[in-house]
Specification:
With 394 residues, the chain is mostly helical. Helix content is 59%, strand content 6%. Strand 5 and strand 6 form a beta hairpin. Helix 4 packs parallel to helix 13, helix 8 packs across helix 13 and helix 11 packs across helix 13. The longest helix is centred in the last third of the chain and has 31 residues.
Length: 394
């Protein structure tokens, strides 16, 4: 790169790192006030999202250039309401629809919202996407805490009380931010060699954390989803989706419905990278078998999640049908996100595809921020499960 190009990149990175430093403390108006509701019946037009006491950490702006863009959030909300085909529900919107939509944009499998240019390769635009991923993750943590409180067993208070200090050490949340920051920096200004090395690292991490890697997180979420759909579930409640998982098979996942666009993209690239007898297939095989093996990583995290979500502390057997199905739908999204990340990391590395590598790193960065804020929301739970509502034309 010439001097001018290096300088321009440096300026853009400086803008990325500078970001927006603020705490978003939006109105504390009750969700049930006129024109604001958790769900909006057909015949009413959603105009945006009303948030209450949503904390926006300063480090998201200073370290990663994240910005909170209310207008962009409102634009996505209107798109969701137009395309959902049913009653618009703010929990569905934030628990799975919006984070899934952001992943599709990051991978390039789906465009930005109509009428707006949203380019994940642009640091400013990507900073807005990081800000929304943060919101979705925080909402999930806060929502799950509130649901466990609402549906805990009154004769066994521990079933409704996660223990943030025990389960969610600060270093775990910080590590997710560190991982996201490294991926953002590499995707933005990394050399081709750095992109390949970071992509390779993302497959299994370095073994220090529970799930700082694609195959481990896939195993964790697939094991968790399988458990809450088959064993740890309310009696007589249909989960609403079909899902099969064989932890003894690498990527042994089957969905009962069409996968999201970014999963299909990752599968196609993975197939291209694993043609028998090809050089990319040999590179992929070497990664499968390197220590620790990717199947071992996937299985160990599956065992961890099954053990954790079998505890009475995290029982969902008493949840009502609506909340349970939302939890399942969020898990269904999480598994697809992780499958896409796992397959894309193998494909990008095996094919030495730098562009796919950069797109994959942006998508994993969004996911790491999302998970970090999910953990933070569990520990903070300041919104008592009522952080957001749709604004609509009354």
């Amino acid at each position: 790169m010439d001097g001018a190009g290096t300088e321009a990149t440096g300026v853009r990175l400086a803008l990325l790192v500078a970001g927006l430093m603020s705490v978003v403390l939006l109105t504390s108006t009750a969700i049930c006030s006129p024109g604001v509701a958790n769900s909006v019946p057909p015949g009413h037009n959603v105009s945006g999202v009303r948030l209450t006491a949503f904390p926006f950490p300063e480090e998201l702006g200073t370290r990663y250039g994240a910005t909170f863009d209310q207008a962009l959030l409102d634009l996505f909300a209107r798109e969701y309401a137009r395309t959902s085909g049913a009653e618009a529900d703010v929990e569905d919107f934030l628990l799975w629809w919006l984070p899934s939509r952001l992943t599709g944009i990051a991978y390039g499998s789906s465009p930005g919202p109509a009428g707006l240019r949203l380019d994940p390769a642009d640091p400013g635009d990507f900073g807005k996407m990081v800000g929304l991923a943060h919101l979705c993750g925080f909402f999930l943590g806060d929502w799950i805490f509130a649901e466990t409180q609402a549906f805990g067993d009154p004769e066994n208070p521990a079933t409704g009380l996660p223990i943030p200090g025990l389960l969610l050490p600060d270093r775990l949340v910080s590590a997710h931010y560190d991982d996201a920051g490294a991926s953002i920096r590499t995707a933005t200004i990394g050399t081709p060699d750095e992109v390949m090395e970071r992509t390779r690292y993302s497959m299994r991490g370095d073994g220090r954390l529970f799930f700082d890697n694609n195959f481990g997180m896939l195993g964790y979420d697939a094991g968790y989803l399988d458990l809450i759909m088959r064993t740890n579930r309310p009696d007589g409640v249909d989960p609403g989706v079909e899902f099969d998982y064989d932890p003894a098979v690498l990527l042994g996942i089957r969905y009962g419905a069409d996968a999201e666009s970014y999963v299909e993209l990752a599968r196609a690239e993975f197939e291209r990278a694993t043609v028998p007898g090809s050089v990319p297939a040999a590179r992929a095989r070497a990664e499968y078998e390197a220590e620790p093996g990717l199947l071992r990583v996937q299985r160990e995290l599956s065992d961890l999640s099954r053990g954790l979500w079998s505890l009475p502390l995290l029982s969902v057997r008493r949840w009502d049908a609506d909340s349970y199905r939302k939890l399942v739908r969020n898990g269904y999204y999480a598994v697809q996100q992780n499958e896409a990340n796992a397959r894309a990391s193998v494909a990008a590395y095996a094919l030495e595809d730098i562009d796919l590598g950069r797109r994959h790193l942006r998508a994993t960065a969004l996911w790491r921020v999302y998970i970090g804020q999910y953990l933070t929301g569990l520990a903070d739970h300041s919104g008592a499960g009522r952080l957001a509502g749709f604004l609509f034309d009354s």
